[in-house]
Amino acid sequence: MEKVYHPYHLVDPSPWPYIMGCSVFLTTLGSVIYFHYSNNILVFIGLTFICLCLYLWLKDVIREGTYQGLHTKATLNGLKMGFILFIVSEILLFFSFFWAFFHSSLSPSVEIGVLWPPLGIDPLNPFSVPLLNTAILLSSGSTVTWTHHSIISGNRREALISLSITVSLGIFFTLLQIFEYIEAPFCIADSVYGSTFFIATGFHGFHVLVGTIFLSICLLRLNYSHFTRSHHFGFEAASWYWHFVDVVWLFLYICIYWWGC
Considering the chain, what is the average pLDDT of its residues? Predict the structure, then answer.
């Protein structure tokens, strides 16, 4: 039978999707058991397998795209479209958080005293740690753009410096948010205000953490010269994700920290 050539990359049979699915199921099951019986062994095992699977799966993708050259132009277009759709799904996730916040804040119910913030809630000062975190995240958006331009222009040294700064700013943001949560005068159980605040900002903090890991992997790959002027979609996807995190934070700061207080 004559072999048909096409521009698409059909991956070899891989065990990682199945293993990842089992690992996520194990983590979910372990979380339910932990909530009821305070036994976190299954959670630890599930997270360990998730991290191991991510490492090995990513290693295969890097090998296929960087060393074997299997990521053709058509394949890259598919990857870009897939990642854009992923970001759209993340936008819809945060849209639901903002919907819950405005539903409760624009027409406060009788149960919370027809007030926003509810009686007894002492909101955080938007011009202290939240404003500092805003400056940090916006600065990181500038440095990640600097990295992109440095890669395109072939300036590897500047790319390494700017990406290192971006990762450092992401870590600093996360540490400040942990400090903010520890010092917050209310908790997630304090009416709908606490629920919407911690769910929205907490999920954003989780996205910052994921983005920081994403960029850290890109920094490691950049150090090993995996990226060229025309082949750097791994970093491009990370930068798109980071800019998405920046924009969401601006909405969170303006709506929840500033207007919502």
Answer: 92
